[in-house]
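Example 3.2
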Amino acid sequence: MARLVFLLACALVLSACSSFATAAIVEHSFNVQNLTVNRLCRNQVITAVNGSLPGPTLRVQEGDTLIVHVFNKSPYNLTIHWHGVFQLLSGWADGPEYATQCPIRPGHSYTYKFTITRQEGTLWWHAHVQWLRATVHGALIIRPRSGQKYPFPKPYREVPLILGEWWNANVIDVETQALATGAAPNNSDAYTINGQPGDLYPCSSNHTYRLNVVQGKTYLLRIINAALNNQLFFKIANHKFTVVAVDASYTNPYITDVVVVAPGQTTDVLMTADQTTGQYYMAALAYASAANVSFDNTTTTGIIDYQGSTTSRRPIMPVLPAFNDTPTAHKFFTNLTGLVTSPFWMPVPRQVDEHMFITVGLGISACDAPRNGSCQGPFGLKFAASMNNASFQFPTKLSMLEAFFRNVGGVYTTDFPNAPPVQFDYTNANNSMNRALLVTTKSTKVKKVKFNATVEMVMQNTALIGIENHPIHLHGFNFYVLAQGFGNYNPAVDSNKFNFVNPQERNTIAVPVGGWAVVRFRANNPGVWLMHCHLDVHLPWGLATAFVVEDGPTPSTRLPPPPPDFPKC
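Structure, written as tokens:
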């Protein structure tokens, strides 16, 4: 018996050593500065990383440590967020300005260092200051460790496809103007695929992304929605997809001819080049669920070019959904399920410690910078947004994470409510302009939870100002999507729809237009973790809060000190 125990112990040690041996240190440098690019018949100065749009694709294996030296040579404050990375015990590297760090000032630098743990698939990185992520972004590809395989047939090639949004203007000026007037910002002028608008736009025949394919081969397309303010439908003419992962979490294979991605989300699909040799358009256009609200109603395209194609005809165009095709969007989002045989799957925690009901929507707040006595939002006030009628305001003197670690008061309060202050018919359009329900005030309220607590959130969209789909992103964790639906959430009926067997795991949920979603996660990572709408028009309006997760009982469950070069406010 003793010999058996000894042999088992040796095996465990060898396994652990082997695991560590496969991990590597992957190091990059980001030089962030102005770049002049030509798009849509004009030159435009943008902020970019290493002189490219999109920025560099980072490729790592699960277990690797990623080190990125960021040199801010731009005229703006800067942080980088590693969207979807758990940041286990490395919350100092998460990136959102004044949530986990103070910004990297122009002319300064900061080194992000963290380990990719228990995650495989497609994530991405982007600026988390103002609207800079419009052009400061790139893919983060996490492959299995050496010796491990994908839970699907190995593709012939892997291709990141970053869907973006383009303005014929300085995006910082677009945001600043909107905040100054209290009105909605100007719409974008184009969408892009890997930085290129496509040949349906003026002066863009040479600004069209091309993917050369070999007939009969299967490609893993890693689709990322880096657009600021729009969910997107994506199709390739005459081709079907098999979804195999979302937000770096494996799914059961789901066959579809259309993909829907909300800002912040990623979707991995297998596509087999099984059509006649020729050229086929890939295309993306907005899924715009808010009625009577203007949006960028253009279409970006790329070209699938089969090897050996000699056609001079225009590529075949896919039949795209209508911009307001909610049934198609809902069908896609609700047909995804988690792959329980994947290497990092964990069963859904059944005992809930914190129940939260969170209303999500727009509103109005006081006009603090009036022009001619009023702002340009409803009732002469300014547009705002809130969760449970608390419109989030970021601190400016110290990051919330540093305040948590050093026990500094006055930076945030821990009184974010578990329910809205007033119950009403949340999705009734007759409440759209009910001024008594619209007015909100600014605060920095967060939700404090104990280490390892299980949190369940009902996210309820409202009809205030307008009914729309809100993509909500949680930093530091994945959550299980237990159920989604339309109308007001009814626990007596809707709790019976919960999927405890194989729910999809995500870090960003598109809460259905005029509807609700129920998610659940385990707060097993100490620190301060932002939760916010990933429409950049809504984040500065206040559609956010944060979770403060207390330290655990042992040194390995407590937040370590910040690195020596941590940015000072």
